[in-house]
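Recall the central idea of this unit: under ordinary conditions, the amino acid sequence of a chain determines the structure it adopts. In this exercise we apply that idea directly, starting from the sequence alone.
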Amino acid sequence: MLEAKLKLQELLRASGRARPGRPLKNRNGDAERALLARAELKPEEAEARRMRLKTLIKLGKERGYLTYAEINDHLPDDLVDAEQIESIITTFNDMSIQVYDEAPDAETLLISGSTSTPVPDEDAEEAAEAALSTVDPEFGRTTDPVRMYMREMGSVELLTREGEIEIAKRIEDGLKHMIQAISACPTTIAEILDLSERVERDEMRIDELVDGLIDPNAKDAPIEEIAVEAELDEESEESEEAGAAALTASLLKLKEDSMVRFNKIKRLYEKMRKALAEQGHRSKDYIRVRDQIGGELMNIRFTARIIERLCDGLRGMVEKVRSHEREIMNLCVNKALMPRAHFIKVFPGNETSLRWVKNEIAAGHPWSANLVRYEPAVLERQQKLIEIQKRIGIPLRDLKEINKQMSTGEAKARRAKREMTEANLRLVISIAKKYTNRGLQF
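Accordingly, the structure predicted from this sequence is:
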């Protein structure tokens, strides 16, 4: 047993690399190849070596030093090469962990700059985990899905309070862009008002439509936000009946205040429809009232499900338009043999012009004769586009621009939400990593 204990010291001194009472000098080497060699190792054996290295790193980080005996205790029995052992020592030195023949006294530690500094257990654990990722590239190639996921999530920085606020603002900004975009579409406004009427008739709960209201006079963040769910203090002695009553009162208040705003939007919507019918979508009166409606909708926090529903409705209309346009292009390009480049050049802006195909035929192009055969089918699709434009009340190109703005806001909110999710998972992972191989089933 004693002979085994002296294995490390003998190997090192035989190569003239260690002197009693002095730390080993740094030399380049790869500790991972030495201690964590994977040849013919079973997964449990490799994990055992990993845990031994982790224990050594944690101990060394906490004290600032290790002894040869401590290292020897954690070395596998088949490790007898002096160069491999030295590479392990070098790795510890690079981590500011000095290695001695025996535990040094306080004066020696002070001279070497390795004074003992207590390290919290979780900090030492984190340092050991970080060190392992540096010296053990084999772990980066693990096939264990749990470890692969934990390593990937470990690359995400923990979320600070300031970072959380910044991400929340970006989510809010993305949602505002979405609402601002869809509020420019008359059919979307009509759908919102229809939903509000269902709430007024008690056919729908207010918290299914609205999360809260925003005070338009607030300087920064929403202040007058009426919570839908009652936030009851855990230590409160209120009964469940009192809590239910508070929730009911909160919902009634939310419904009352929301109806005031929806009624105002309804009045503005009637003015907008009148301006659209009498003056057109480019008139100053129409644009002014439309912007007023948008401002009112921006102060209402719709539920995520409602926002998704409104966006899906708008996307559905755009998809119908594009579907008819693709059919027209197929008839002109693939059937009538019109050059694709020519179609892309002349068709945009003429989607609802029934004279377009007639003008193309009259122009005497090489494909004009073929186009005569497909003229009725092209006009049929164009008529469907005219019906869609009439139903939404704005030109198709405006509808496409609204969809583009909505998609931009949606992508912005989605990216911010993903960052928030990853950051929160990172916190979970930072805790879970401390409990691997401790009986938890992943």
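Strands lie at 65-67, 98-100, 210-213, 300-302.
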